[in-house]
């Protein structure tokens, strides 16, 4: 469940799990514990767990750093730097999970105590369990490190430089006709140390960021207002994402971005387009061929492919809140469930460079990889963790375990899931050229899907009418409704690798209590024939 | 030191923290909470956890430069350290032109949201409550998934303008979904209480079971405009989109459903049926809430919509000062005046309609009209000639709560409900019959 849109407000952020305690910007650059100290602490927890009867134990020593800079027009509304440090210990005793977490623990005694508490919880849960945990085997990797391949750590960029950029962006929006502009930077650094009784000691340094804005235009005569959000993507990159090469830009009806984002250029376009939306033609409801830009398609992939192929949902573990899945095990076992057309290859990949979900190892020490979910349109696999993967006949986890904090227990989360680019050379212009009656949608906006992931409705930031292969003008009040299987079977063409780009969710919510996950979804521009479009304009 | 402090203990600690302040203004906030949860699925416990914390947050201001620091240690040295840290951060902060200083002493309404029955809950109480729910599913050979969480906490605030506030509270939220073993039926029930003695997981699970069995064999009917009877939960999750949109600044700025042409707003105008009154009241014993807001402002009983007229909007103190109006804070609870009709009576008086027990995944489509989209879930039924005829397949809807409240036919009785959309916010909302509710497509989801 994607919980926060691009116009994320402080109010919405306040509804998310606590990020940590406020600290200075300088504190974000202070080194965490030395890796040798972390190993010693981890061993204390693992040894305590084993001595109390655990057949398996893992420990996560986590330091989570965040920086949020939130502005509107010519004002800085808030600069929030947070740090959260603590330890989570997970154990299996008599075939049952137990978990305990402790904040600010930096001594061997504190970690041993947390391990003992986890063992006690597992022993209490044994009474309520009728089936022992089956953990897929996992070799130990010894002492290793992994780091997001960033060029510039965003925390090293002075606050003033970042504020100046946002103020310049806001000024440009106002100078180009915006009535209001809200802009923000979110920067995240997860410093995670994982150790397990399998013999792994994995030190990872994970970086993510999300620059964004919302521009509002108002027509005082009618009292109508329209907005246009940034066409940026949240990424697993450093500050270099904001320093653009011309090759990162995709020109066309509006400029879109790949591995670098020109915030200033985009906000100028946004200010003009928000005004243009005020007088755009209201769409006529009906069937259209949709041409979907990757800045839009990511959320449709997330909701209609990512979530239904999470194995815990399929099994019923999320039935009380997020829901279950239409993609049941019998459909997978049949080996002929037609998820999409032959053009549709959907894959999971936790190694994609620049993606939000890229890590070297997941939160239960499994090395990450890429695997197929839907091949030539047929459902072939799910996303699972070590204690689930035997259900789909695999003897090795796919590495989908994640916890959003040291204080929360890791569980099955979505990997980056993408629609593979088309194998035949095809540009966006060539794709549009053949469309007689269509709508070209760019950027993500409203989204909703049922609890088994059949029926969905999406809309975009920008919609353009396509008539006889030509873009005819801007539309407003556009939303499309479809059914997952019908929609992916209506996919007739996907542009080639040159157009493949990532979008993503910085705050994907799941579980009770809810945890947040960051995940990317890639695609090239794709065409879907005969999709039902509704008009969302209403008078109150 | 215990996690939950008494008013006197909290006051002493906050007074001591304030003595270290050298800033122009200083505000100290103390919060403590014991939070426990237990989750189950496939008729067995899947995870459980607990979090216990107490945090002191200090906000220091020099002019309009503001800094905040927090700490969870409470010895004298730690108190001084956190005050100094907040002052350092304030000195480094940019000017905040919207900072209007601290609130002075306030008079708070009496609100009672703390119950010993909840505060004294132990792991065994939680396990028993969940076991009762699981037992119902097992005995009927169905499958239940559910979640129970309880919170016992307190908040206290003091500032250099002599404001002091204290509020202890307890809360429990329970929800359960029963799915029939053939996967063709699904039912849901939730209960939110402040007092553990009022929690009845067995009766809530029984409601979920009845709905699950009742939804088996759902038939498709054509989407379109229908008279709907919304059970209180379904009505609440629609209305919460309206509740979140009562901010004066957005309306004044022209970017709200309450904005009008020429920079005006609809404040004082009738926007929905005249039988609609939506209000907040921290003293309501059925839904107690803190009598003070995040910045210390006193909460009053406020009618937001009175007899269909938008009467009040919430203001930040900055915006109220700019507009020269009273700074009414955003409320800590929401409730709506109901009618006398029972659910049965609402059904009996309906020629042709749909009974909706729950909505799901509601998201904004157009903030101008408050149009939202979402789906029915876990119990939707076709009504003909005053009787429930059969379960129906789930619908997607596109509707605005404003249009919905204009199309009000009859109000039912008020119930305390828990939002099923993720926040666990509790409301007091009546069942309601609405004409011409817009269903736009069918879903195969069960």
UniProtKB/TrEMBL annotation, chain A:
* Short name of one Pfam family: PmbA_TldD_1st
How is this protein annotated for GO cellular component?
cytosol
What processes in GO biological process is this protein linked to? proteolysis
Keyword annotations for this protein?
Hydrolase, Metalloprotease, Protease
List membrane-spanning regions: none
Q: Which PANTHER family match?
A: CONSERVED PROTEIN (PTHR30624:SF10), UNCHARACTERIZED PROTEIN TLDD AND PMBA (PTHR30624)
Identify this protein by name. TldD protein
* Every Metalloprotease TldD/E N-terminal domain range: 57-122
Residues covered by the Metalloprotease TldD/E central domain? 155-242
Top-rank taxon: Bacteria
Write out the GO MF terms: metallopeptidase activity
Originating species: Spirosoma endophyticum
From TrEMBL, chain B:
Q: Which residues form the Metalloprotease TldD/E C-terminal domain?
A: 223-440
Its keywords, alphabetically, are:
Hydrolase, Protease
Biological process (GO) annotations held by this record are: proteolysis
One Pfam match: PmbA_TldD_1st
Q: Which domain of life is it from?
A: Bacteria
- Any idea where the Metalloprotease TldD/E N-terminal domain is? 26-90
**A GO molecular function held by the record:** metallopeptidase activity
Regarding protein family, the annotation reads: Belongs to the peptidase U62 family.
PANTHER family for the chain: CONSERVED PROTEIN (PTHR43666:SF1), TLDD PROTEIN (PTHR43666)
List the protein's name: Predicted Zn-dependent protease or its inactivated homolog
Give the species: Spirosoma endophyticum
